[in-house]
Amino acid sequence: MTGNHKNTSITRRRALAVSGGTVAAGGLAVAGFQSAFADTTDSTDADATASAASTSSECMTLMTSVTEGPYYLDGALVRKDITEGKAGVPLTLRLTVVDATDGCTPVKGAAVEIWHCDAWGYYSGYTTANPGGSAPAESEEGDSADDQTYLRGYQIANANGVVKFETIFPGWYTPRTCHIHVKVHTGGEKEDGTYEGGKVNYTGQLFFDDDIAEEIFTLEPYSKHSGSYTVLADDMVYDGGGASSGLLTLKAVHKKDPSKGYKGSLTLGIDPDAESTGAGSGGGGTPPSDAPTGTPPSDAPSDSASPSASASS
């Protein structure tokens, strides 16, 4: 695959702006990886790792928010497993939220929201948007996922600032590289299965190493989407900053069999007093003119109804 789809002239949903703040730089990202994959209860090891992270001077380096992109929907559900039966290589995602203005102390109760496309490049709520290249129609996958809610969800950070999601490795769509969108909210509360109130402190995107992504995309069902994949260096949003720009630390569940899945982690150092509009730099593609808006239906699947991700090789 080659990265030949960068197109900075693509229509953007919002004006460019700089807002909010987060950090995932250097040593802090490493500490975040260790903390995220420790027991998420209040264990001695997890507390010790959180303490080590809090002493890192690098946590004071803030980075600006980037665009929320054109495929955001309000009202995502609070749940750990967001797959809804969507096929793909399993991905366990652990994110650690810390206060970068207060020595990188964990932000207990922060709501982390993520959303991303499926293996063929389709987003829930926007299943008629052509992902570019040659891909089957989203409806041909034959899964039972709700077309307005799959691969979207919130989790609430525990005492160590850690959240965990069970999902699948995202596919891709023209002209973007493989990515996951993320928002960090504080000050709100869980209500009617979603998260209400408060404010968004950070809007960002999480990225994947090119070599790993391209290996995944040779597997089923990803391989049914053919075309030229945009590498990190050619992406309109990723700026080459590594962890500080959202590049995930990835660990294979089975080194010789990528279809078994990956564990991904990153530390997000937010400023709890900052507010992000979601209109950060970068593009993200244009949704179809008839794309739905608003909240998911009242009978949308809950966490307990979401089956685990499946992988095909």
Explain this structure:
It is a single chain. With 313 residues, the protein is mainly beta. The protein is 9% helix and 22% strand. The protein is built from 3 helices and 9 strands; from the N terminus they run ααβββββββαββ. The two termini are 19 Å apart.
Structure keywords:
313 residues; mainly beta; 4-stranded antiparallel beta sheet; 9 strands; 9% helix; 22% strand; disordered N terminus; disordered C terminus
Write the layout of secondary structure elements.
Layout lengths: L25 H11 L7 H11 L35 E10 L5 E2 L4 E5 L36 E5 L5 E7 L10 E13 L2 E14 L2 H7 L32 E4 L9 E9 L43
Parallel strand pairs: 1-9
Antiparallel strand pairs: 1-2, 1-5, 3-4, 3-6, 6-7, 8-9
Helix pairs in contact: 1-2
Total of helices: 3
Terminal Cα separation, in Å? 19 Å
Helix content: under 10%
Task: State the total count of DSSP E strands.
Answer: 9
Give the biggest beta sheet. 5 strands, mixed
* Helix and strand element order: HHEEEEEEEHEE
In short:
The chain is mainly beta. It contains 3 helices and 9 strands, in the order H-H-E-E-E-E-E-E-E-H-E-E.
